[in-house]
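Data deposition worksheet. Section B asks for the primary sequence of the deposited chain exactly as it was used as input, without tags or linkers unless they were present during the calculation. Section C holds the resulting structure in token form. Section D is free text for depositor observations; keep each observation to a single sentence. Incomplete worksheets are returned to the depositor.
Section A, Depositor: J.P.
Section B:
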Amino acid sequence: MQRAARLPVVCVLVATVLAGCTSGSPEGSPPTASASAGPVETSPGGTASTPTTTTTPTGVRDLDVAELVMPVAAPTMAAAWQERFVIRYGTGKELLGTSPGGDSGSLDIGPDYGAPGPDGSWWFLDAAKVRLAHYDPAGRFLGRVRIPKRLLVGGRYFQWQLPHVLADGTLVAARQAPGRSYLLRLRDGVLDEIRVDGIFAPTYDDGTLLYGFTGRGKPALVDPVDGSLETTSTFGTPAGAAFSLRVGRRLKLGLPDAGVEKVLPIRTTSGAVAHVGVQVRVGADGTFHLFLVGAGEDDESVQLVGATLISPVGQTADVEPLTDPFSEADPGSPAQLVMAPGSSTPMLVYVLTDGVHVYERTG
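Section C:
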């Protein structure tokens, strides 16, 4: 299986400005949108259980800061983040695959991330093995769905990225093509592809709709039922509350339903301005969880990585230090902040050289 060359860019969710992760366009015409049944193979006895949820943590953290101080990437995760499971690479069907990457093809590039469903099970975009790989909440293999050639670009290239699993259990992933976008969907065991009404890079979902940005950087939402697209000034939480989030050298948060407008400077521990990208997920309890990656103006060679949370009324916690998500196996985002529909527990997916590591915030 070949994977098209990828641009080493960072996907971030900023509710007004985003450069979506895109891939270099391979030779050959993209497939047309069509519906097809995908064979679902399930291991005997494979089951999934409902995920647990946690409440907003308390303790020694400052839960209403006036600025965000970005920590340097730590050698270990913050104590509140625990490794939930690791899925290794290999040839066995229960293992994830790697494919050649880098300028000379000397790197082993891992999957295009994974996402949990409402039952707690996980789906991974296993590009190297041309499949969707299914695992239980503990990382045990459940089954797979093979991707037919007609859903590969030019019949060869797997370009689906950054999966989302919606509240009804539908798996959705996106790919970009010249002048257009497509959604891959797995619903009730049926695999198909639909064309989006415009160029669209999804970065967030509220359990029903996909949110992201158009090719011109305008915030937009897409209905994954029919691919219809419309621009929007705000994103929505699973409970239907509107929010806006801008991040650069400052975090600008808008919660119109709560009457909250706030601006927080983002700095390094030395006080210099920090420039970060952010991913956000919102729990069933209304808490916003942010994953931040960037660098400071004092030393751009130092990787800054952390996570924070924002209450439904805008109180913002200090930033917890996290380990560096970049690795030679990473497909280029880096890492993904995820949350199972109906849950309030944030998780992180790191694609590392020895396997895919999933961390869960347990504190």
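Section D:
Residues 4-59 have pLDDT under 50 and may be disordered.
The chain has no helices and 29 strands.
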